[in-house]
Fold this sequence. Notes:
Mean pLDDT: 97
Distance between the termini: 30 Å
Number of domains: 1
Number of helices: 5
Amino acid sequence: MTDTLLVAMGAALGAPARFLTDRWVQGRHDTVFPWGTFTVNVVGSFILGAVYGGVSAGAFSHAVNLAVGLGFCGALTTYSTFSFETVRLIEDGAGRYATLNALGSLAVGMAAAWAGAAVVRAVLG
Length: 125
């Protein structure tokens, strides 16, 4: 299977997962804070960290890295929507939410990526 096809297959699953997760999570919160985007970005960071942990430990193949890491996580996570929603919060006068979104997404996303790698490495021994 070609590298491009592996990425496309992962993305074909990641994009609808992003849309459905975002709508489901956001529909359960009565706030202007973009919980749906925050959730997909944190979950995607954890998964990508886990893939990295598995690849660096030699347990996951290059194909898994392409399909799951690049394709699925690339389509699941969204920097552009995160940026747009942060700007929208600022323009709507919700500067505290914008700051929380920007700083929280960065901090929690990085922690999730680290945790994903650490969990996989611990499981693999």
